[in-house]
Amino acid sequence: MAEAEHTEILVIGAGIIGVTAALALQSEGHKVRLLDRAGVAAGTSVGNAGAFAYADVEPLATPGIIRKAPKWLLDPLGPLSLRPGYALQLTPWLLKFWRASRKDRYAAAVKAQSELMHLAQAAQERLITEVSGEPLMRREGQMQLYEGAASYRASLPSWELRRQHGVTFELFETPDAIAEIQPGVARRFTHAGYTPEWMNTVDPALWTRHVAEAFVARGGTIEITEIRALRPLGQGVEVETASGPLRAAKVVLAAGAWSHRIARTLGDRIPLDTERGYNTTFPTASFDLRTHLTFSDHGFVISRIGEGLRVGGAVELGGLELPPNYKRAEILVDKAATFLPGFETTGGTQWMGFRPSMPDSLPVISASPTSRDVIYAFGHGHLGLTQSAGTAQLVAALCAGRAPGIDLSPFRADRF
Description:
By secondary structure, this protein is an alpha/beta fold. It contains ten helices and 21 strands. The longest helix has 28 residues, at 103-130. It is globular and about 65 Å long.
């Protein structure tokens, strides 16, 4: 590995956040090098649902969720579960999650999330144009499905919240209305909400690689190495890697679910943990999926990936070390076959990914409290792809020392 120049910016992490940030910094004239232990889109960016979910402004920590959580957490195959072997380790995170669900903190989180979503959506459209990425997009909307009037009525406050924050949607109250957008859904789903401006990529791995290729074509470099530690210098940062030390003017840490371990080498203790998500990808589509489907009461989605379908979701709080429980993926596929008659359940490939999650569902986008030359960009939960272009814009502003365009105090690394 060549020695980094002291004027160079090193971006750690070649998932969608890291590659998009690297391209944004490069576009402002910086010399940028991208470092990753495994390569471009080798982690969570390869297997997510491919959605740009700008309509999802509500955090997981909602008022009253603690009353519901015990029932969910004790169901090992439910939409939200806690692995028993991880419960003690997760306790500090859960306490912060509980505090984040208080009404005042929840309202502040919704406001911050909404502002980031609006910024990210505009930035994503600019990025698509910049890298000629429209062929990798699908603009087919998204439908959230509800079983019965009671479930639908319970969802109405969240739709009102979306309305207040500028999200366009339609509400359907009959199976026939649902079928006009998406034929073939079991008629047990009687109500739905449809967000027509929702967008997906044809494949999140392809999109991430496409952005990375644009970065390399413009002179950027990508190197495979393990990052062991960061050390602040009088000016700049030293990065200890498996291949030797590097020095750079600034470092952007965007290593997803592993970011807090690297941040700890600076002395920063950040309450990042992991929502483990499961999916199964089918190479061919046995069901004519016309829009991204969200089964709200069951915690999973179905999206088109390439010429096939991906069934995935759920939240398992289990950290980075415990082995996968692929029974969770099987349950989701079985439900898909029940909800979409004719869906073929054979031939799929199972996968588990680590969503890097903060207790308040807001990412960390800020300078390190220890070193102004280290910029943090991680903790986006299931919204990394969605918020990637907006995060890149904010990272570039932080590196340049200019006003970011939105209030970044809710995203500070030391907010807890």
